[in-house]
Amino acid sequence: MLKSVVRAVGAAVRLCPASASTARALPLSCPALCAPGSATTRPFTRSLWMLSNSGASSGFRPKLFSSKVLSPAVSCGCGGLHTEGDKAFGDFLTDEIKEERKIQKSKTLPKMSGGWELEMNGTEAKLTRSVSGEKISVTFNVNNSIPPNFEEEAEQGQQKPAEDEPEMISTPNFVVEVTKQAAKHSLVFDCHFPEDEVSHGEGEEESDIFAIREVSFQPEGDADWKETSYTLNTDSLDWALYDHLMDFLADRGVDNTFADELMELSTAIEHQEYIRFLEDLQGFVKCH
Amino acid sequence: MGVVLRNLQKVVPLRRARLRKDIDTLRHILGVQKFDLGIICVDNRKIQQINNTYRKKNIPTDVLSFPFYEDLRPGKLPCPLHRDELNLGDIFLGVEFVMKQCQEQNLDLHGALTVVTAHGICHLLGYRHETEEEWAEMLQRENYILSEYNRLTGRQLEPLMKKCSQDR
């Protein structure tokens, strides 16, 4: 019980929306529960890690160990505090990093088919390509892109074999920006991987692989989302118009194949960033 | 609600707007515009799985229909009492299977999907082809639908039943 509650809290922390200052990337953060397709996946192995901290976004403050401030601490002259807890933490991180590296499929990121160029800015990825004078860019952020998937495990209440563990797939919201030459505004699609209806056994998911949530015109290259632009919400849209919008994206290389590859890429980036974070954390905890 | 269109596969590039327009034309011909209809496009793996689950046939196929009304007399439209009964059911289109057939026979994919969908809607409306009599009745209905479709669109589509084996 405690385990599930703690993990739920961890999930809640991870679900906090990205900072508002994030450039045009992701106005809404609402990842899907599970994702179809053949995206590169890896098993859920962060359980212990999630129990040991309050989430990546909260920043690490060793409160549990802070009581040791009053007890004798080891000092090596680096100006930092070193406790027994820090040592245990460092050892734990060493094992965790080793495990994560073991399940990392490749050190290099998977390539997107269709001539997309990848540009990284921290956890934000931008894919761009040009088609007959039009520029198409797709932006996504791997932060908060892995949906929580704890329900079944909590119900089971027992350790499952490693191969049966749920897989971690990154399903980020993504923004497609289509820019035509000589046009003042770009057409911007806010897309996401829909939450599948929970299905047991049959696996009959009924959602499209990806869906358009909103469409609007935005000033070209402008980093800030202009809230005053009319925004077409697809919840109550004429379906024929929706289909034309989907065909419009498909003609520009954003189709189900693209979405599937994007999941694979995002999963690999997220994992890479996670390992990097663990390494930074280890370096911070350990003596410099 | 109308037609709920879902594309769950990535093998076949589909034109959603074209598919919806063709399905709307079929609904118009059959006079079933007020009924909801689900069209789900899937690959071979998925349709084989569904075929195996519901028909114990572990092979991919072109179309599987799941009628909302299971005991309709062929040709009789349902008489729903409530808004949520304005539903014909769901049709799973094996678009990968259909595409392979089109490649072999040099046919237009969306034309073939229209033919297959017409077949599926007939099943939702109570038509069967388990006996010779049923087969003839269903062929006649498909002939009518596609001749109307051809008249409205200028295309030249032929019923699936013409080459349909009895075990479909």
From TrEMBL, chain A:
One of its GO terms (cellular component) is mitochondrial matrix. One of its GO terms (biological process) is apoptotic process. Its main location: membrane. It is a peripheral membrane protein. It holds the Pfam family MAM33. It comes from the Eukaryota. It is found in: Cell membrane; Cytoplasm; Mitochondrion matrix; Nucleus, Nucleolus. Residues 143-167 are annotated as: Disordered. Keywords: Acetylation, Adaptive immunity, Apoptosis, Cell membrane, Complement pathway, Cytoplasm, DNA damage, Immunity, Innate immunity, Membrane, Mitochondrion, mRNA processing, mRNA splicing, Nucleus, Phosphoprotein, Secreted, Transcription, Transcription regulation, Transit peptide. The keyword Cell membrane applies. InterPro entries: MAM33 (IPR003428), MAM33_sf (IPR036561). Belongs to the MAM33 family. This is Complement component 1 Q subcomponent-binding protein, mitochondrial. The lineage of its organism: Eukaryota, Metazoa, Chordata, Craniata, Vertebrata.
Automatic annotation (TrEMBL), chain B:
SUPFAM superfamilies: Metalloproteases ('zincins'), catalytic domain (SSF55486). Keywords: Endonuclease, Hydrolase, Metal-binding, Nuclease, Zinc. The keyword Transmembrane does not apply. Gene3D superfamilies: Metalloproteases ('zincins'), catalytic domain (3.40.390.30). The keyword Plastid does not apply. Pfam families: YbeY. Its cofactor is Zn(2+). One of its GO terms (biological process) is rRNA processing. PROSITE patterns: UPF0054. InterPro entries: MetalPrtase_cat_dom_sf_prd (IPR023091), YbeY (IPR002036), YbeY_CS (IPR020549). GO terms for molecular function: endonuclease activity; metal ion binding; metalloendopeptidase activity. PANTHER family: ENDORIBONUCLEASE YBEY, CHLOROPLASTIC. Belongs to the endoribonuclease YbeY family. This is Uncharacterized protein. The gene is ybey.
